[in-house]
Structures are given as C-alpha cells and as structure tokens.
Amino acid sequence: MPEPGGAPGLAEVVRRWAVRLADTDGVGLSADALADVLQGVARDVLAKVDAGREAAIRRFSALYSAAPMGIALADPSGEIVEVNAALGTFLGQKPEDLRGRHIADLGFSRRDGERLRAGLEELEETDVEHYRERVRLAHADDAGTWADITLASLPGDRSGSAYPVLMVLDANEVHSLQETLRHQSVHDALTGLSNGSRFNTMLEAALSPSARDQIALVYLDIDGFKVINDGLGAGVGDQVLRGIARKLKDVFASPDTIVARLSGDGFAILLRGKLNPSDVITLVERALEELGEPIYLGDHGIGVSASAGIVVRDVTEGGPEDLQRAAEIALHRAKEAGKAQWMLFDPELDARDRARYRLGAEIAGALENGEFSLIYQPTVRLADHGRLAAVNAALRWHHPELGELDSAEFYPLADTTGMTIPLGKWLLARSLAAAARWRERYGEAAPEVCVRLPRRLAIEPDLVRLVKDQLDTYRLPAHALRLCTDSASLLDPRGEVLESLSVLSDLGAKLVLTVSGSADLELIPAHGLKVQHAVLTGPAVDAVADSEDEAAARHLDQLITRARELQLRIGAEGVVDARHAERLRAHGVLAARGPFVATSATDDEVDELIERHRGQR
Asked: What pTM, to 2 d.p., does this model score?
C-alpha cells in the first residue's frame, strides 16, 4: 500500500502504533484493523497539511510576482535563482537575464558591490535579521540608479540552512530631495556659492590640529554696490552678484579653495595648501581685474570694482577668530586706501607695502629732481647681428636709497598716484630727442626708437596730440617712431586706444603689438588695426630657449604663419643666447632683443653700437 501523502516511512510508523494499541487493555480491534484506522487518520491530516502548504505557496508566489518592490531570491552562495518583474523593470533588464548573477554584481560601482557583499557576509556571520543600505544599482543604460536595499535570510529546506533574499525600493527621488535639501542648507540661494555657515565650518576644519601647510583668507567687498541696486534696481543687482560669483569661481578654481557669499555684497575665499603671499596676491589681482570687466545685462554693461583684504599664514598661527579679524582689518585698510585694491595683512609685507606707497608718493619729486633716465634695449636683425633694427626705450629710476629701479617696479605706483601721464610724456620726449640726435649724426644708420606705452598712457584720450607735439618739437617724421602696446591695453574699456592708434598709424607711426598667443594676433583683423610689427614674447619664445621641443616649435610656427598672413614683420624679445636666436631665425623670426645682444644700454652705449654696426656694413 502506498504511503499517504508520499511521506517516507509513514506505513511503518502506523503499523508500529497499531501493534502497541492492539496490546492495550480494553482495545477490541486487531492490529490490522487498527492499522487501517490510523492510516485513515494520517491520510486526512496530511491532506490538510498539503492543502495549507500549497495555498501558502500560491499566496507567496502571488505576492512575490505582484510586489511593487524588486525582489531577488538567491542560493546560499548569493547567486540569484529567481527575480520578480518589479526588479527587472527597475534595473531595465529581463528577469531571466539577472538569474545566475551574484547579488554583489548588481552594484553600479565597485564600492556599491562591496556594500552588497558586506551585507551578505553580515547576515551569514552574525545574528542580525536584516541589512539595510542605500546603494546605486547598475541599470541597463549603463547608469546608476539609487535604491534602498534590504538583505534578509529565508530558512532553507535543511536545518540550519538559509537563503538570502534581496528587496529593493526606488530611492532616486528621495536621494535627489535629500541632496537638494543638503545643498540648500550650506549654499547661498542667489549665487550658489557656499554660505556663511558652511564657510565657518570649513574654516574651523582647515585650522584643526591635524592641518598642515598654509592657509589664506581673502575678504572681498564690492565697492559702491548700493549705486547699482539703487540706480538699476535690485533685480539687476542680483544678476550682477551672480555674475561676480561666476567670475570668482573661475579665478579661484583650485580643489582646495572655497568661495562663499557672506553678506549682500561681501564674499570670502579660503585657500589651503602650500601657499605663499605672492601667489595669493596674483590670484586676487586677477579677480579684481576680472570683476572690472563689464557684465552685460540688456543695454547695460556693468563693471564693478572690489576691495580685498588678504591674510596668508601657517595653519598653526592662531585660530579662526584671529584669521577673520586680520582679514577684516586688511579689508578695512584697502577701502581706506582708496578702494579697488587689495591689502595684505602680514607684519613684514605690510611694512613693505607702506614703503611702496611712500615710493609712489615720491615719483613726482624724483621726476623734478632728475632721478629718472632712459635705458635702451637694442633690437638686431637675426640674419645679420651687426645691424640694429631698433632700440626700445624705457625708464629707469635712480633712487637715492633703493638704487636703480626698473619701470615694472614703479609704473603700478605711478598709476595709483596719477603720475603715469607725466612719466609717459617725459619718456616720449627724451626718446624722440635721442632719435633726432641719432638721425642727425648717423643718417640712415640711425635706429628707429620703439616706445612701449604704459597702459594708462595708451588709454589717454590726448595720446595723439602728445605724440604729434613731440614729433613736431624734434622735427621727426612719424615713421621714425614705433609705438608698442599689448592686448590688455587694446581691450581696456577706459579709453579709446584703438582710435588713437589708428590715427597715429595714419600719421606714419609704426605700430608694434606684443604677442604671446594666437588670440593676440586675431585682435589685428578683428579691430582693423594697422599694425606693422609683431613681437613674440613669453612662453612662445621661452619654450625653444634650451632645445627644440616639438609641440613648442609647432606652436611657434603657427604664430609666425598667422603673422605672415597678416603681413607683419616678426620680432621676439627675451632671447637669451646665440643658439636661441638661431632657432628663432630658422622658424622665420626676423629681429630680436635680449641678453644675446645686451640686457640694456645707455645713450653712449647705443652710440657705440651704431658706430660698430655702421662700420660692419
């Protein structure tokens, strides 16, 4: 007789109990009869158990299939054996394509996979009932999709065995919302920069006991921002603030830098790492220059100026309050000094800055007392180093205490004190006087004089009259003069440089443009400039000083080819030696100046050069 319900050994159990019951006092049935009765009872019980089990299985299958959450059933090793439709839809894959994969392989990144694997190990090795985590799972479109996952264990068919199950809920919207709320809590709503709360937190972290190297704090305030708000409206003011934020982020783009908006028109920049004051100052000056460029809103081109207070120190020197107080003091001093400038808070540099301003105040008296002189840098033709092509005139200050100062050391101060125009007039007058003397003495052998215009002089509305008056004074033809300028002066919005240079070119003066890249050259056709000479400078020249780097040579060739297309005569400055000069000549540079000829020369030394070069003709 088959065993009821298919349960192995059931008939044997029934017979054993039938024999025992038949041997009991008061039982009037034989062992066989009792066996038939017990068999019927067992069959009824097993039928009910099987029916309940099948119903439970059907209910579980229906729930598993219809569940809105994704579910994956795995074997004890973590290999997926069954996947419901919801998980396939969530991952953009067919359920059958997910079978056979390990649960950890569903992670989008290596880190996500490691989290899933850690969860499986935790379930296996500890008594936890479930493991929950937010991870990214891999989607069929190669993107990651955020999910809240739960790993749990289902009992196996053998005692002590367990089968892992993965349950997945879509967390993309929740994750996005949390990220949005987190961002809003630490960022300024108008500009998107860090807000004051986050900035203070980051400042404290940057000065923690474990911090190393240096820290710099820059407080930056927009000068006269109330004028924009009152004159053009708060809406325009908001747009300007957003434009300022973008410019600051572009300038201060290092990963170790934080830019924040602290107040209406107050900003702060925190820099960390191996810093020195000059590097930070360079960045601040660039930021102030960028802020001066107009932001165009409709018909309005709005430029702003800013004042900045700078602190640079080792992280071990004081806490956040000390650093902030120093930055505030430096900012206050910058505003007191006339705004639109920076001030560095540092004992040594602060004293040096005061000395520089004193130096600027002395320029007027130095000019009157004859402390300035001309210094020249000869330019020779590379095909024949014996022939002078021109001499470049510059100013030198013979300071009674500091010694000889080059123009780069005092021109910025002259801009601050309004002395650039008087210095420029003096430079122009002395240069043309020397040119007239050389033409009278040496005739055609006399070199042309090239005067590099300081930016403040280049944008001077009276530039044409100043030049023409000096040419007339010394009875010089305009073609004896070369006027050199750069792209920054050409694009300076404060003056009519392009119009002035065009008029001077029509008078016969030769225009020279210093060029460090192709963008400088493109200013010539873009603005219809009548430039005759291009002088290569900076990296384009320096890159071939020691060797013939292929990329540098290609860049140099591109510049020279474009200059030739614009019918320019090509020169170079900063040429260090004869081999450097020869490399440039081989690429098509016609003339050059630099240490390979002479670093500088006085009037008398130029006379000697002319005599010597004239004798070699």
From this structure: 0.48
